[in-house]
Automatic annotation (TrEMBL):
The lineage of its organism: Bacteria, Pseudomonadati, Pseudomonadota, Betaproteobacteria, Burkholderiales. Residues 12-159 form the Flavin reductase like domain. InterPro entries: Flavin_Rdtase-like_dom, Flavoredoxin, Split_barrel_FMN-bd. Keywords: Flavoprotein. Belongs to the flavoredoxin family. SMART domains: Flavin_Reduct (SM00903). Its cofactor is FMN. This is Flavin reductase family protein. Pfam families: Flavin_Reduct (PF01613).
Amino acid sequence: MNKPVLLAHAGRLINHGPTVLVSAAHGGRRNVMAAAWSMPVEFDPPRIAVVIDKKTFTRELIAASGQFAISVPCHAVRDATYTMGSVSGRDLATSGSPDKFDTYGIGHFAGPVLGLPLVQGCVAWMECRLIPEPHTEDAYDTCFAEVVSAQADSRVFDHGRWSFRDDNTNLHTLHHLGGGQFVLPARTVQGQVLAPR
C-alpha cells in the first residue's frame, strides 16, 4: 500500500502533530526511537524539524551519518511505538543485546534514497538529510533536515491528504499525551470557504 508522496506534500505527513519514530544508522549500528515533537518548517525544498535529545544513541548516529528517517506510526503499532520510546538503544548496545529492531522484532525496510531503516506497519515514511547547524548543535535538541524521499499508506494518505475515517481507525496516527497514553484523531472533516456577505 506504500505510495510515493510528492515532496511538495511531505510536510503534510507530520503537520498534524503525530508521534514519529526516528531511525538512524552508521558504521554498522542502527537505532530507532520515538519522538513527540516534529513539524514541517519549509515548503520548497521540504524541510522539517524534530526534537531529538542530544544524549540519545539515535542523535549520536545522526550526528555521525548526517541523515535520519521518520516513520509515522499508527494505532496498530502503538505498543512497539511506546517501547521504542521507553528503551535505550545505547543500553542494549552496551549490554551486548541486538538493536531494538532485532530485540523486539520490529520489521523494517530500506528507504528508497538513503537506504535507512523505515519501520513496517507505519502509515508514512520520510528519509531526511540533516541540515548542519554548527552554532546550535551543542545547545539545542532540535534537528533540522531536508526531506529527500516520502511515501505513505494510500489507505489513509493519498493525493496529499490524510483521510481518518471510522473504517480505518487501525491506521490512525498516534499523538502522545505522556506516560504511554496516546490519542487518535477522530476523523477528517472538510472545511469550506465562506461566501462574502
